């Protein structure tokens, strides 16, 4: 029986077991997927022990993604580019490979939500708010999808500038104070900050100047409908929530561990949405 995991600290909040165990169940695969709470101090030993652990691999979440990048035996080109690992695969020879599926997961959700021609329909210019690990994955994903112009905005300009090399020729950093003037030419607005998340202040941004063809995406999924997405829908704009990125990033890992590529279905989404609702 193949086994996989999600490792973090803390980890009780993770919905990954719901996703992967759903796929194991509907496909009749004899396997397991579990939460593992590992402290940062213990994480290096955890990675070193993986080849003898019986696990086929697993997901990595906060605060271990950058440590996993440093500790794996080999990295996919995408993980190397992003500088963080969210998926570990134990190879047949015992080597531990690190991948980052957040970038393709984000793009797959955009494609599913907006249709495959969204880069053309929205004008080919994306505006990314934030410059953390999630922003790095989003910028790489947008560059791989062929976006010709990716504007990165952060309150700390140096952090935004650090992401520009991820998409040479396409990405540029812009001052936060210039944000209102950028919106009329933006086809896709992406919030990668924690603003709008439960327990955090909302993102205070007037969307009135966005084009009617623009789309708005938020990687936050608790709540599922952030104030930013509610404002986008009120304007009649396409709005893409953060749950789909979580679902789609899980697909490549499941395929690597269990040998079958699963689908992100309405039934799976409904199961996770039900779990996100307050009791």
Ends: how far apart?
Answer: 34 Å
**Helical content (DSSP H or I, runs of 4+):** 25-40%
Report the portion of residues in β strands: 15-25%
* Gyration radius from CA atoms, angstroms: 19 Å
Explained architecture:
The chain is of the alpha/beta class. 38% of the residues lie in helices and 20% in strands. The protein has 12 helices and 12 strands. The chain has helices at 16-26, 43-48, 65-71, 77-82, 102-114, 118-121, 133-144, 157-163, 179-182, 227-234, 243-258, 266-276; strands at residues 2-8, 31-37, 55-60, 74-75, 87-90, 96-99, 125-129, 149-154, 171-175, 188-191, 215-218, 238-240. Helix 5 (102-114) crosses helix 11 (243-258). It is globular.
Topology:
Blueprint: E1 2-8, H1 16-26, E2 31-37, H2 43-48, E3 55-60, H3 65-71, E4 74-75, H4 77-82, E5 87-90, E6 96-99, H5 102-114, H6 118-121, E7 125-129, H7 133-144, E8 149-154, H8 157-163, E9 171-175, H9 179-182, E10 188-191, E11 215-218, H10 227-234, E12 238-240, H11 243-258, H12 266-276
Parallel strand pairs: 1-2, 1-3, 4-6, 7-8, 7-10, 8-9, 10-11, 11-12
Antiparallel strand pairs: 3-5, 5-6
Helix pairs in contact: 1-11, 5-7, 5-11
């Amino acid at each position: 029986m193949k086994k996989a995991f999600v490792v973090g600290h803390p980890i009780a909040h993770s919905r990954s077991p719901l996703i992967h165990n759903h796929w194991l169940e509907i496909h009749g695969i004899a396997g397991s997927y579990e939460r593992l709470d590992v402290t940062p101090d213990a994480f290096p030993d955890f990675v070193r022990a993986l080849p003898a652990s019986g696990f086929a691999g697993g997901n990595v979440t906060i605060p271990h993604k950058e440590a996993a990048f440093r500790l794996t035996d080999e990295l996919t080109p995408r993980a190397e580019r992003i500088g963080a690992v969210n998926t570990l695969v134990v190879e047949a020879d015992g080597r531990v490979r690190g991948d980052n599926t957040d970038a393709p997961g984000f793009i797959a959700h955009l494609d599913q939500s907006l249709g495959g021609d969204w880069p053309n329909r929205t004008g080919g210019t994306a505006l990314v708010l934030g410059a953390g690990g999630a922003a790095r994955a989003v910028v790489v994903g947008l560059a791989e999808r062929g976006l010709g112009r990716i504007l990165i905005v952060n309150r700390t300009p140096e952090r935004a500038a650090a992401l520009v090399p991820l998409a040479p020729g396409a990405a540029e950093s812009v001052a936060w104070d210039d944000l209102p003037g950028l919106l009329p030419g933006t086809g896709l607005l992406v919030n990668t900050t924690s603003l709008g998340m439960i327990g955090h202040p909302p993102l205070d941004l007037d969307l009135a100047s966005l084009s009617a063809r623009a789309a708005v995406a938020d990687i936050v999924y608790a709540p599922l409908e952030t104030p930013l997405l509610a404002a986008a829908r009120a304007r009649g704009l396409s709005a893409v929530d953060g749950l789909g990125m979580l679902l789609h990033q899980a697909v490549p890992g499941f395929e690597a561990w269990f040998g079958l590529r699963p689908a992100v279905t309405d039934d799976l989404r409904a199961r996770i949405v039900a779990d996100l609702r307050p009791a």
